[in-house]
Amino acid sequence: MAIPNRSIQPGDDFGAFCDRGIVFSLCAVIFALPVSIALLESFAGLAIFFYFLKKINRIVIDWPLRTSCPGFLGRIRSIWKGFAPPVNLLDRPLQFLTLAVLISVVLSQYPGLSFIAFIGKFLKCVFLYFSLIEALSDEKRVRIFLIFFLLSACLTALSGAVQHYTGKDFLRGHPIGTEHSISTHRVNSSFFSANGFGAYLLPVIAIVAHFLYSAVGRKKSRVWGVALALFLVLLLACLCWTYSRSSWVGYLVILFVMVLLDRRKILYAGALLLVFIFIFQPSLNNVRHMHLINDGGVQKEEGDTSFLNQGGSGRLAFWKKAISIIRSSPVYGTGLNTYGRIIKRDPDPKTWWYAHNGYLQMAAETGLLGLTCFLWMLFVLLRQGFSYCKRIKDTWLLTLLQGIVSGLLGYLVQSSFDNTFYTVQLCTLLWLIIGLLVAVTRLNAPAESPISFEKKK
User: Fold this and answer.
1) How far apart are CA 153 and CA 159, in angstroms?
2) Tens of pLDDT along 284-294?
């Protein structure tokens, strides 16, 4: 495999080995993500390990030049820069987000819990993002990563379909209907919950839907078009069988963004919307005795539990609890990874539920400062993504970018109704999708782009 990364100099075989190690580890991460948290964490650690090895190797090779830096501080600064990732559009927002999260750790009500989460969760995801934009430096590597992503998603969706028809998925052996005893018909495949499975499906559905439109519009191989169509049908069927209203709202957002990015897709998006109206919604009423907006007959399915009847299967009560925690420490929050401890201060165990809104829980833990920095990062990312969707000339990269942008937005909206940011699998998926978006924009940066993605010599 050719080594396109410009940080690898000719003859640097060890750096090339580390680069390939990062690519292998990232493909293993995205493939194992739906099935095994242990494998996910192991390969994520391996990717970060190769990333640091590559950076250390580069520092050692360049050390004769670095020793010419004036003074001790100059050398330390040059070493620090040696570990930095490629220059990218999220540099500044990510720096401020890291600082805000670190402040919440220092001022945490449970410093030990916050410090462990900062190292083991937040920094792990940040360096996994660095590893991805470092290694996916040409279209071939992006294609390889995408193949592993879609292959894993296909197996996970097949497992969900098997679970729907046989009562048990074949990846983890999860029996259907065991999720909190809420419903006997909700498919969760290899994930802990049906909502989690639905959130995972959203970016996959967006990418496959855009590639199917491109394949039909460009009259590519009929076999390829049929394969994509069958894959999309499988994904939509699994999304329907999750009966996850939060994920369904994310799906509607995907259709809206699809048209926003390309007005020519309005009929295509309209057809997918009809599937939602005539298949998804009636099945929700028949199976969960609910409607998309209101709970309807929730008492028939979930019992007469007072907090569950306060709207959105209890979400209004969860959100009020989260807002009360935010008010207790609005600026810096109660500390990273402390929400579970804070809610248990209430003597009533029935209130010990997570916020079911990633943004409210983030504000509770890291304060409005942390939430603002996170939203700033997303704004910069999506603004640049929309901008590049108008300027990238490569058809394949454009289609992929449109799928990533619409899928990411659907995922982010779904997170307004669930704890998506706070599960290991789905949090890792978020940072991988963010990294993939940045990697694609770096591959085909238009000449007139106001942002330079390469470090100045």
Assistant:
1) 10
2) 888 776 666 76
